[in-house]
Structure formats: C-alpha cells, structure tokens
Design brief:
By secondary structure, the chain is an all-alpha fold. Helix content is 79%, strand content 0%. The protein starts with a helix and ends with a helix. 19% of the residues are buried.
C-alpha cells in the first residue's frame, strides 16, 4: 500500500495538473503526468495534498468495515439486522462524502497556487471558492448519469470520456469561484 501511495499519488497529481492546464488553455504534454517526480519539493507537495484526502477516505472505510464486522460477528444474521447494517453504512458513507467534499477546492489550490506554501494555498482556496460543500455536491451529482453510463459500459466510457470531462470541469468550476 505504501509503494502504491508513493507512486500513484504523484501520478494522479500530474493528471490533475494536465487537466488544470487544459482548463486554463495552456499547452499540456504527456510529460506533465510525471511532473511531481521532477523535484523533491513538488513530490512532497503532491504527497501532502493526497495524504489528507487519503487519510479521510481511510477513516471512512475503517468506520464502514468496523460497522460491518460488528454486525456480522456480534448480531444474529436476520433481515432487520442486515437492513440496519446497510443503513448505518450508507449513513457513514454519506457523512464521509460530506467530510471529503469540505476539501473540494484544495487540490485545485495546490496546483493553481504552486508557488505558495500549502497552508497559504488552502487559505486562498477558502477565499476564492464560496461554499465548497455545496459546489462539491453539485459537481459530484452532476456527473452521476455519466458515471452510471460508464458502469454499464464496463468502464470504457468512464475512462475515455467521463474522467477527462470531470477533471477539466473540476478546474473550471473552481476557477469560477
């Protein structure tokens, strides 16, 4: 998991950098995908940015896993217990999504204000993007039909069309503030 984090997180950071360049009408090249590996400061910045999001996601995953294991091992396997378990896990996922969407503009700010230290970039993001939770919900649920279509095409449409569209739309949405 650690090796995956050390190599995948900076590459995803580069993918977001390409999308940011495309949204700003700048020239983007495939080498930008590996931008985080170009300098140790940029690499540390990419890891610090993704670490916060990954930490929150891991906490939500652990909470859901603990709830599931408690219901499986502590309670008898009846239909009401299974429904209650599913309901609690659904509530945990929604709360986790709210917790993650509170940091909606942070990745944009990390790339947009790359010459600033991270705390200053995050402060600038809070100033620039009004109501990040609402904007994050609107952005996420605006792409639900395309995500479902991508699911029905076994991910082909998702990778070929929806993901690039979502990445560029994210930067355009954050730029609008």
């Amino acid at each position: 998991v650690l090796l995956s984090f050390l190599f995948t997180a900076p590459t995803l950071f580069g993918l977001f950098r390409i999308a940011g360049k495309l949204a700003a009408d700048e020239e983007a090249v495939l080498a930008d995908l590996f931008y985080a590996f170009s300098d140790r400061h940029v690499y540390a910045r990419a890891l610090a940015t993704v670490r916060g999001l990954l930490f929150r996601g891991t906490i939500v995953w652990f909470a859901c896993e603990i709830t599931y294991l408690l219901f499986v091992y502590a309670l008898p396997p009846t239909l009401p217990n299974a429904v209650l378990c599913g309901l609690l896990i659904g509530i945990e996922i929604l709360c986790g999504l709210v917790w993650l969407l509170c940091r909606y503009p942070y990745l944009w700010a990390t790339i947009r204000f790359e010459d600033m230290p991270l705390p200053d970039a995050y402060d600038r993001a809070r100033e620039h993007v009004s109501s990040p939770l609402f904007r994050g919900w609107r952005f996420t649920f605006g792409f639900v039909p395309w995500l479902l279509l991508g699911f029905f095409t076994v991910g082909i449409l998702w990778i070929a069309d929806t993901l690039p569209r979502m990445l560029v739309a994210y930067f355009v949405d954050c730029e609008e503030g």
